[in-house]
Structures are given as C-alpha cells and as structure tokens.
Design a protein that fits this description.
The chain is of the alpha+beta class. About 25% of the residues lie in helices and about 25% in strands. It has two domains: about 170 residues, Dipeptide-binding Protein, domain 1, CATH 3.90.76; about 210 residues, Dipeptide-binding Protein, Domain 3 (Dipeptide-binding Protein, domain 3), CATH 3.10.105.10. The protein is built from 14 helices and 24 strands. Strands 1, 6, 13, 14, 15, 16, 17, 18, 19, 20, 21 and 22 form a twelve-stranded mixed sheet that branches. A hairpin with a 2-residue loop joins β3 and β4. The longest helix is centred in the last third of the chain and has 18 residues.
Length: about 525
C-alpha cells in the first residue's frame, strides 16, 4: 500500500525475534531467509468457527481500486487480500508460511526456487500455474503498469517457469527483504482476467473469497470461493464490507447487530471498549502504521532545509500523541515501532520543542517575520485533521501561520501523489522491513516519494542495505539512513498508530499480524 493519508482512518502496512537464520516453514528449509517481525495480538481465546454466515464488516473508507498492483489505499488491500493469494504469507507469530507455494529454498544468494500447490484455481475457472507467477511480477515491474510496489521488486532480474508447478526467481543482487516483500505485496493475478476484464473493479484471484459487487459509496460484497485450495476454509459464506467513518455510528451498529466486525475504534472509546463484555477487542503493539508530516521539498517554502528543520524543532510530538491520538499508540521516531527489531531510538530533534532554535532557522531561511503555509487536511479522518490542528498551534509559536485546507480524500490523494501541496499528514502501511519504507518513500524517484526528496548518498545506502542478508550490517546502514533523513527532514515522524479491531462476541478468528492482512478466511461465527 501503499501510501495514503495517515490512515484511511488509517487502518488504510514487526515483531520481536530473530530476523535471519534457518526456519522450517511449509515443509521447506529457508536458506538465508528472513522471518518477519512477530506481531502479538491481544484477544480472547480463539474458538474454532462454524461454517456459514455473512460477515458484515466496516471499513474506514472506500477503496480506490482492487488491483493489487496499482491500488494505493489500504482499504483496497483490506478487500483484495481476501480475493488474491500470495506465494507465502506472514502468520501471527511472524513466521513465513506457504500459501500458493508448498515449499521454497534459496539455491544460492541470488536464486530462489518455489514449488507450487497443484490445486489452486482462479475464480474464472483457470488453474493456477507458474506462468501466473511470472506474469504477476513481470506486470508489476512493467513501467506501463505504474505499480506503487515496483520498488519492492526491482532486484528481480527474471522469473523463470521451470514447469507448471516450479518457478525460479533470479535476482540481480542479494536482496534481504525478498521474502518479506513477497508476503507483503505479492498477490498473484491472472492474465486472462487482467487483459480481458476490469482489474480495478472486477478482481479475479485464487483467494478464499470472490467478487460479487461494488456499490459505489456504500459497500463491496464477496462470496465464498467454491474451489479454495486450503481445505475447510473459509468458514464464512460471504462478506459485506460497508464504508463507515470511525465514529459512534459504527459502535452503535455493532451494538444493534447491524455490524459484526469493524476495523477501527474511535480513539476516545478505546479504553472503555477494550473492556466492554459485549465485544472482543484485538490489537498488537508491534503491528501498525507510521504517521508523518510530509513537506514538499520541490515547493517553497519547504524547498529550504532550514524551514523543514524549523518545523521539526517546533513540534511537541508527545502533545500530538496525547491530543490527536488520545494517548494511544506511541510517539513516532522512525518507520517502525519500539517493539520491532529494526527500531532505532535516535532522534536529532529529541529536545524539541525548541522555539528559539526554530525561529533562528526561519530567519536564516529568509523568513525572520514568519510565513504562511497551507496544510491539506482530511475531515473524514479525525486523527489526521486533529494532527493538523495541533501542529498549527505549535507552529504559531515560531511565526508560521498554518492554514488548514479541508479536502475530500480523492482530492487529497490526487494533490499528494502529484506533488501539488505544501505540507500534509501521511503514512506508509505494511512497513515490516525498513526497506518497505525507504525504497518507496525516500529513495530518489521512488514510486511513492511524494516529498520530492533526493539525496544520492541516501539512495546508495538504501540500495546497499537492501542488498544484504546480514541483520547487524543492515541495521547499521538503516541507522545512517535515518540520521541523514532526520537531519534533512523531508518528512517528520510524529506518531506510530497501532491497529485495533472490534467485533461482537459471536465472531472468532480475527487477529492482527505484521502485514496487516485481515486473513478473513480464518474468521467465522461461533454462535
């Protein structure tokens, strides 16, 4: 995903434990592979669901599309993750497990062979084969596709079809995040469906659910796929995703029985609802979304380093957490939370707010009497809008008049993706490995580098870190990357938002994992 406003409510992509080493997964030995960081969820004991029923679920917004190669809003991923399958997945313990792949191994540092399941079928009736894997990644890497995730797979040199059930990835270089990226953004598509159908609104995959309808502005309906390759799954007959803002209305709908499951809780009610005996509350302290202020380095006044640094020195991030997020989550420091093995506590602005330093930087930039800037705010997402309001009050102290322009999410996304803005709030979902953030958001020309930031030295460090499998060496390089990016401040991390789900007591099987996939094939009714 992509990138969206600091969360389309913002559930709109680490775990503790070893990242690299040997692990037995899906019957195969992972050679020099990395396991993703492990997400721990708080929830009631899981009771095996019964078969049948329609889940009525609330999402925080409407998807932009359901094409996994091009969708840039997390609500799209929440839906299409149930329609498509990947070669491998990350489970709730942070381990890689097979989905369309039965086993996999690294033949050498740059060659990965996957043995595929033989019983997977696309929803249009075509059997899944190695040819579909090759088509999927060739399409992602084709510039004509304009995939937001191409940057995650550029180390792929070629995908070789050995036979219908064996596919080989040949890499240009050693690539540490390879398995993580497959598990995060490797949904396998069908050539016939893509080239003869509507991939944006009529997705065809091999997942547990298949598309029924999309009623604009209201809901998306899915039904159980009749030939899903995992025996006994899914439990549900159907899912209806309703598009509902995160406010009291969704809690009322859960209370009255109009909804069964919701992807977010109004923050002011988290404390009470997690203890409410009517509901099951699920969260994880180490799986969520890094929120940041994005500044357009290609437009005045944020084309000047000193102005960006002045904003950083003016911020009280603890106040942002307290006011905008009502104390939930944690103060943002980097792209991962403090529980991640990739976490780095360094912060060049740790002593902020420093009003005197910020004012001096503005004067150095040529703004001794202050200036006025425009912040794009999203009224549909209260934490985003509140963040802007808190920042506005903090910047007044250094002479910056932050004018908040409230716009619809479609207007926001168009402006943000085209670089037609000055300052706004944003986030990057599904950041399991630091490369998921830096290759996409920070690297020069990255597919979602919307700040226009460019530093060849940082690009080189990003590339070097990705081309390693040694955890200690990679962490050292990411520390250098964070130090430079923090100093040059094209964006400022302000908050790390943890994910929460709320459901009625008759629902079981829902869990938060590090890839933020909903895994609704495991969810069902117990009463």
């Amino acid at each position: 995903m992509t990138l969206v406003p600091a969360s389309l409510d913002r559930r709109t992509i680490l775990k503790t434990g070893s990242i690299f080493g040997l692990a037995l997964v899906g019957g195969s030995t992972l050679l020099t592979g990395c396991s993703a960081p492990a997400a721990t969820s708080t929830a009631a004991a899981v009771i095996k669901p019964k078969s049948g029923g329609t889940l009525r679920a609330a999402l925080t917004g409407e998807p932009d599309s359901l094409d996994p190669a091009t969708s840039s809003i997390y609500t799209g991923a929440q839906v299409y993750d149930g329609i498509f399958s990947k070669l491998i997945e990350i489970d709730s313990a942070g381990k890689f497990v097979g989905d369309l792949a039965k086993s996999w191994k690294a033949d050498d540092d740059k060659t990965w062979t996957f043995t595929l399941v033989e019983n997977a079928v696309f929803h249009n009736g075509e059997p899944f084969t190695a040819t579909d894997v090759k088509y999927t990644f060739d399409r992602i890497l084709d510039p004509k596709t304009a995939s937001a995730y191409a940057g995650l797979f550029t180390p792929i040199d070629s995908v070789e079809v050995k036979n219908p059930t064996t596919v080989v990835f040949h890499l240009k270089t050693v690539f540490g995040p390879f398995l993580t990226n497959l598990a995060n953004n490797g949904e396998i598509v069908n050539k016939t469906a893509i080239e003869t159908g509507d991939p944006l609104r009529g997705p065809v995959g091999t997942g547990p659910f298949q598309m029924v309808e999309w009623v604009q502005g209201d809901h998306i309906a899915l039904k159980k796929a009749p030939k899903y390759h995992h025996a006994g799954l899914p439990y549900l007959d159907a899912i209806t995703f309703k598009f509902l803002l995160v406010d009291q209305s969704r809690i009322d709908a859960l209370s009255s029985g109009e909804l069964d499951w919701a992807d977010a809780v109004p923050l002011q009610q988290v404390t009470a609802l997690k203890k409410d005996p009517r509901f099951t509350y699920v969260t994880s302290p180490v799986a969520g979304i890094p929120d940041f202020l994005a500044m357009n380095t290609k437009k005045a006044p944020f084309d000047k380093l000193e102005v960006r640094q002045a904003v950083a020195w003016a911020l009280d991030r603890k106040a942002i957490q307290t006011v905008a997020y009502l104390g939930t989550g944690e103060v943002g420091v980097c792209e991962v939370p403090s529980g991640s093995p990739w976490f780095d506590s360094q912060n060049p602005y740790s002593s902020s707010p420093d009003v005197a330093k910020a004012k001096a930087l503005l004067a150095k930039a040529g703004y001794p009497n202050g200036l006025s800037v425009e912040y794009l705010g999203l009224p549909q997402y209260p934490e985003l809008l509140k963040t802007g309001q808190v920042v506005r009050e903090q910047l007044k102290a250094i002479g910056i008049d932050l004018q908040i322009k409230q716009v619809d999410v479609s207007v926001w996304f168009d402006a943000f993706s085209k670089g037609d803005y000055q300052i706004t709030s944003a986030y990057q979902e599904r950041t399991v490995d630091p490369d998921n953030f830096y290759s996409l958001v920070i690297r020069s020309g990255g597919p979602i580098n919307t700040t226009g930031y460019s530093n060849p030295a940082v690009d080189d460090l990003i590339d070097k870190a990705a081309a390693m499998t040694d955890e200690t060496a990679r962490k050292a390089l990411y520390a250098k990357i964070r130090a430079i990016v923090g100093e040059e401040a094209p964006l400022i991390f302000v908050h790390y938002e943890t994910i929460n789900y709320l459901m009625t007591k008759k629902i079981s099987g829902s869990a938060v994992n590090s890839s933020l996939s909903l895994n609704l094939e495991n969810v069902g009714f117990i009463a």
